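Assemble and predict.
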Amino acid sequence: MKLTPAGKCQQCSAFHEVGGFCSHLDAEELESLSAESRSVMLRRGDTIDSNELNTWPVLLIATGILSMQHLLEDGRKTIAAFFMQGDIIDMRNMPARHRGSLIALGKSKICRLSPKVFGDILEKNPSAQRVVWENLRTQTYRAMEHSADLAKKQALEKLASFIFECQHRQIITVSKNSVTIPVRRIDLAEYLGMQPETVSRGFKELEERGILEFQNTLSLKILNAPALRRIANGDRSSDHMPTAGERRFKVLSFG
Amino acid sequence: MKLTPAGKCQQCSAFHEVGGFCSHLDAEELESLSAESRSVMLRRGDTIDSNELNTWPVLLIATGILSMQHLLEDGRKTIAAFFMQGDIIDMRNMPARHRGSLIALGKSKICRLSPKVFGDILEKNPSAQRVVWENLRTQTYRAMEHSADLAKKQALEKLASFIFECQHRQIITVSKNSVTIPVRRIDLAEYLGMQPETVSRGFKELEERGILEFQNTLSLKILNAPALRRIANGDRSSDHMPTAGERRFKVLSFG
DNA sequence: CGGCAAGTTGAGCCAGGTCAACTCCGGTGG
DNA sequence: CCACCGGAGTTGACCTGGCTCAACTTGCCG
């Protein structure tokens, strides 16, 4: 097979994934976008600096995970959002005050799209436009929902919500109740506005209550989805019910 | 002057404001959008219910202020975002889980846009498309910034950030340092994830430190913008410096 | 000018932050 | 192959910012 100039795109998730932005482009568009764009590999900790964002303000995540981080004067750090496979980040003319830094949280491949070609495509290709539009709206409403979580939920409730968020966003689903957490504990804590210690204690409690079970730090199984759902929704009525763990133990020991 | 079918639009901020969505439409587009859309007046507390959002998922705020509220099982309530003049809310095909309720926080006029005509316009009118796109992006990054505020900032810091947010969003600026808070204390507390009591105490402290001064509950003057900025940015080094108020008092009493 | 919601003030308490010590794990080099 | 190392994660003890509840004041609207 002859490798067109856009041949590299054949390997890219944004091209071959159904619904991926580049899969909606015609040959000519793909050609010119590809010619004017640059893809990069990032490792954990790599930062896309401000200068770079000025020349390359439009990014597409091909694989991996990026974070938008905000830093306070005294070093407190927050992750305002996660960007994952298929997400498009459009920072054209963003005033600096709206900008955090974009930092990779693991090995990632991103494509810096030519702002000009990107803009042209949005104007002329309604189906590509729709994909980008949907993506941005999802980001918006996700961010708002996340705000709501941060504003009023307690530690356990935030963790529960987060697990569902991971479940909804994950691309490959091994089994219905398996969820993979795509980031380290520290990042998770920063995203949820809590301390790593608190995250640890929270997960421990959820395990003790028999609601979930960790395979390892990054992957878990939901054992009692309704209970987890109730916690995520802030239903405190069941807070002091006997836990599944306790109950099972008693039955076994007296049975 | 002859009143065209879209005559009602002549009065609307979205039409006559520079940069307003409808000001970017040509006569024909305005005509058909207007014919298929419905504007409504809302009063504080009016809710746009879920059914309504299914038939009219695209809204444009002409004047006033709406909130996106999320409710937890046990009654805790959060305001995830404010929508103000010029904002466009596009809820087409949003899964229910991403949806809070839209509730007016004061007298507002909104225009329910025909989703079909709105969609057609986005495809065909690049300049209108750009306006909507910019608006959505602003909403996105604002929501992310707000998440960052909620995640790690303390009460005072959140208040300080909020004042700057109001300053940036307000349409009419009386004087450089006057800021109008567009919502009541309760709403503000819900937006910032705190209690009204805490809001009150926070503002009191900022006044006592001589950083700002309230004209009435809704409007204030910033007296020391750099100090407010430092607080908003989470600089705790100045936390226990003598306050302007204290200093002034001492000078006067010994002078 | 009265009534009621909004906002403020005060006192006490607790969820989660902080700090410090410890364990676990993956990678590295001898 | 194993000993070592360093960062990530966990556990424990303590402390505090902001929540809670209750009483009070203010200000708006009829």
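Chain B has two domains: 5-148, 153-254.
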